[in-house]
Amino acid sequence: MRNTAFLVAGIALLLVQANLFRVLGPLHIAGLVPSLVLPLILFMGVHEYSVVRGASVSFVLGYATDLIGIVPIGLYTFTYVTLFILGRAAGVRLAAQTMMMQVGLVLCFALVHSVMMLILLAIFGKDESTRAYVPRVLSYLILPHVLATGAAAPLVFRLAERIHSATVTHAGSRDTVTSAGAGWAS
Description:
Layout: H1 2-24, H2 37-46, H3 51-69, H4 75-91, H5 99-124, H6 133-138, H7 142-166, H8 171-185
Helix pairs in contact: 1-3, 1-7, 2-3, 2-4, 2-7, 3-4, 4-5, 5-7
């Protein structure tokens, strides 16, 4: 249930993200569109969701981003799964409870994500003549993108916390059913 809720929220955030350039376009700042899915993936990683389930949700959201964003298939898929695993490793040491910590965490991971994207585009670019050119041109978009993603992080974290609290399974109610069923069967 929780994974489905995160997946639906991620797809909704992805559709909003894909259309944000229409709203932010009149500002004429290239790269200002935030990544709304990245804070959701970091929330799952920092809150130590199951590796298989979190990586699966990250994989599907990355693949959907690849399809909607018209980028080489596998680019966002790989980076989102990698960032989930890195977020899970950092989750033991970092508690993203305060808004400043959430923004700082997302700023760092958005920067790592942007650098990973540039490196992967430089390595696996389609054409030999544009491999060196494309990352150089896109490098100017990193700072506005990272700052916009950091600014959107508290809203996405708040949404993720609501999903998390709405889908919490109560162990006490499950134990009551189990113990009642075990007592009745014997």
